[in-house]
Amino acid sequence: MTATEAILNYAAMQGGTFRRKDLLLHVARQQEHIRATAIDLQITRLMASDKLQRVGHGEYELVSQSLPEFVYQPSEVEKDVYSRLKQKYPFLDFCIWSPKVLSSFMLHVPNIGYTFVDVEKDGMESVFHALQEMGLNRNVLLSPSAADCDRYLTGTDAIVVRQLIGQSPLTEVDGCTVPRIEKILVDAIGDNELLFAGDSEIYNIYEYARVRNHVNMSKLLRYASRRNRKKQVEQIIKNIDNDQSQE
Questions:
Q1: Helix, coil or strand: residue 214
Q2: Would you tell me which of 89, 102, 146, 224 could form a disulfide with 192, CB atoms 3.0–4.6 Å apart?
Q3: Model pTM?
Q4: pLDDT category, 170, cuts 50, 70, 90?
Q5: What's the pLDDT at 49?
Q6: What are phi and psi of 169, to 5 degrees?
């Protein structure tokens, strides 16, 4: 690992903001071959290239552009389903995505083939019936229980209609409304359809997501608050950071 990679990875694990003295301690434990002088030199260069900015004495912030934005790429099938639903319900808020996107952040990859259509509450029943009438040759489930998910989702390519929480972090890709990484990360904590992401895997998901992509912490915590999961998210991040500092 180079000095630059060590700085950017550590900054990402700290949520974007870090202190020089903490960075040096971390690097001394993890990358003994990287000298403090090399770290200082690369901090200066990263600031010059607008990848870091100083926010206080000995304190720096990772500029969001230094890590790539996560972009969910809808499949052709998802684009088709979204387009047909949008044509039928042009004023309804909904997004489409597959939880298999989480597999890139996991150590143990489950067999995931199903798709989510997250819809505002008042439109859930209508969308559920519309999907059933499309002749997709796929099971369509409406707000399944944990038992239903265990029974009907494992290894299937079903479509799951779920409630879209207000002010969810969303974006548009190829004409489809899809989730931002912040929504995916919060949903992964406790949703019936995402129980495979629980236990130790949730820590892998959060750690790898924050190292590889820019995660907007304010969006993450705001959405977590709306789902009554803010304390859980904060605890996961705190545990990851503590583990990193002790390694």
A1: strand
A2: 146
A3: 0.74
A4: very high
A5: 81
A6: -70, 110
